[in-house]
Amino acid sequence: MSGEVVIEEGGELRRRLRQQQLISAFGREALRGPDLETLLDEAARMAAEGLGTMLSKVLQHIAGEGALLIVAGVGWRDGVVGVIKFGTDLASPAGFALRTGAPVISNHLGGEGRFRTPQVMVEHGVRRAVNVLIRGEAGAPPFGVLEVDSQDEDEDFSESDVDFLQALANVMGLAIDRERDRRDRDLLTREAHHRVKNSLQIAQTLLRLQLREVEDPEARLQLEQAARRIMTIGAVHERLFSGPAIGQVSVGTYLRGLIEDLRNSLGVGDSERPLELELTEASEAEIWDGDRVTTLGLVVTELVTNAFKYGRDGVVVRLDIGGLDGAGTLTVEDGGEGPPKDYDKVKGRGLGMRILSTLLRGGGLVAQWPPGERFRFVATLAPPPIPTPGQ
After folding, report:
1. Whose CA is closest to 328, among 291, 259, 280, 275?
2. Where would I find the beta strands (DSSP E) of the chain?
3. How many CB atoms lie within 10 A of CB 226?
4. Is-contact 327 380, C-beta < 8 A?
5. Given this structure, which CATH class describes domain 16-180?
6. Are 234 and 207 in contact (CB under 8 A)?
7. pLDDT at 126
8. Cα–Cα distance, 149 to 75 (Å, whole number)
9. Contacts of residue 307, Cβ cutoff 8 Å, sequence gap at least 6
10. Could you give the CA distance from residue 244 to residue 290 in angstroms, rounded to a whole number?
11. Domain 214-381 adopts which CATH fold?
12. pLDDT tens digits, residue range 347-364?
């Protein structure tokens, strides 16, 4: 008999040590910052493993429906996760945990007088269940319930099992709070970019209206260029909240939209002077932050406007991002006769060239006159800055 006790205690010790390992592993996973769906799936898997069962689930409270929806789980048939909902009344084990905040252990569901057994659990032969509340910071509504189910009656769930589940649920709560905070920040960021974009559109509209009152050709040219610069920046803000992530912009998508905008603003959409964009495969896949994309867009706008001002034929914009450092080469070429004779003076005095000189710090701009009646500007784009520690 004493030998049996030692074996049983040894098995119990190994189980508790394994549970502690799972809690530690789940904490590390949560710190990595995976998406919420991945985190909930991992929590369900570890909960089942820690209690030695094949069935577990995460139920999210849907306040507007007064229900708990199974949003993650292991061991359930198709059509359960993401579909089946439980009640939140006190006769529901999960509902009881949600309403009272107290864990629920039911080791004999078939003879349970306190709670009803949901049909989906009956279908899966569940005989025992234990669940705990998933809550985050004090005052915030609870996320839902973490539950583990078992199909056998050989061993009861214990208070130690509840402690393990609650530790997992607490880590989940912290991760969910962080996700909520991130989403709130994203909403505020989206709203900020939306407001900036609208303000820039108003400014552009006012400049267009002012153009109707201006007859001097040089003044009109300056107003048109100012409107295009505002349009370029506005396009970045529009795509900052519709890109792959907040503050991140697909270079290929942005440049295609910018080229189309320039076609319209320069009035070359249906003309015999086409405006074309050529992107390398690497350039197409680039994702840049808003500041760097704004710089790229302004450089393209200045060079394309300049090319149409002095050139005769169509303009081709090429972008080639190469190497691991993210640097690149932007080429704008047209079939013109080259810049005017006093080009050097224009370069030193013109607003467009001064803007380009400022934008391309860390890079460079070279004017080329290859054989034939055409000229080319080649801009070297600097690699992105190396983040400083702590950023």
Report:
1. 280
2. 55-62, 67-74, 85-87, 104-106, 128-134, 144-150, 248-250, 275-279, 287-289, 315-321, 328-334, 364-368, 375-381
3. 16
4. yes
5. alpha beta
6. no
7. 92
8. 10
9. 315, 332, 333, 334, 336, 377
10. 12
11. Heat Shock Protein 90 (3.30.565)
12. 545 666 677 777 776 566
Q: What are phi and psi of 107, to 5 degrees?
A: -90, 0
CA angle at residue 290 from 287 to 293, to 5 degrees?
65
Type of residue found at 180 = R
Could you check whether 16-180 and 214-381 share the same CATH topology? Answer: no
| φ, ψ for residue 140, nearest 5 deg | -80, 145
CB-based contacts of 86: which residues, under 8 Å, 6+ apart? 59, 67, 68, 70, 92, 94, 95, 118
Token pair, residue 44, equals 């369900």
* Burial label, 75 (beta-carbon count in 10 A; 0-12, 13-18, 19+): middle
Distances (CA, A) of 342 to 205, 348, 354: 34, 10, 16
pLDDT digits (tens, 9 = 90+) for 258-302: 888 888 777 776 667 788 888 888 888 888 887 788 888 888 888
- pLDDT interval class at 71 (50, 70, 90): very high
CB-CB contact of 58 with 133 (8 Å):
no
| Domain parsing of the chain, residue ranges | 16-180, 214-381
Q: Are 177 and 136 in contact (CB under 8 A)?
A: yes
Report how far residue 352's alpha carbon sits from residue 342's, in angstroms, rounded to the nearest whole number.
15
Q: Is 170 in contact with 57 (CB distance < 8 Å)?
A: no
Radius of gyration of the chain (CA): 32
Structure tokens given for 196: 């900036």
Of 51, 76, 12, 53, the closest CA to residue 167 belongs to: 51
Token pair of 85 as six digits: 């909902």
pLDDT by residue (tens digit) across 132-189?
A: 999 876 567 889 999 999 998 778 899 999 999 999 998 888 888 887 777 666 565 5
